[in-house]
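Before the break, one more example. Copy the sequence into your notebook; we will annotate it together after we see the structure.
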Amino acid sequence: CTVEKNWHLLYEPYVKLKEEELPKLKEKTLHKIKSLNNERRETQPPSRYNPASVVKKMEEIGIGTKATREQILQTLYERNYISGFAQLFVTPFGAQIVKTLEEYVPELTNEDLTRKFEGEIEQIQEGQLKKDIVIEGAKQTLTKIMDGFREREQKIGKKIAQAYSLAMKERRTIGTCPNCSSDLIIRVSRASKKQFIGCSGYPKCKTGFPLPQ
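Here is what the structure looks like once it is written out:
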């Protein structure tokens, strides 16, 4: 049985802990040991999200509707903000977008704002709120946010442009040149408009490979 709870105090509200009673032992009594296990374990991180668990999480926190949540997820894929299917990963580009917006316009990344709008739309549908009042309130809120965005527009644009440029370079880079060790990247011929693989060290290195069109 547990003598001192220590870290169990923090876990008790969330997990079911089962006590195992030890048999009564007497001093100087000998017992046979069946086996000894010396194990070292570390706390494992939570499982990564997958598309289904993201949609479920959105439902829990009130983002999107049943009809729009999958489309929101698809948009994140299309804009190269996330990657992977069995496990989702935030791309460096997606992470930089969030970091930049959190720095300059944190209201746009606040899920409370989205939840508030979604809740008000549902209340309109249920006849609990009037549409005109909700729209007017949303206009005032968004106008204030966008005014702040415009004041910092150049700084935001510069950081996002840098992140986009790096993301595009990463997507176009497919390996290392066997002749000069520069990056091999996907290029488009000015003459034929066809894609091919070329060395980023061009014109010093003219290594190239065709691609299926």
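Residues 79 and 94 are 8 Å apart (CA to CA). The chain has a mean pLDDT of 89. Try to locate both features in your own notes.
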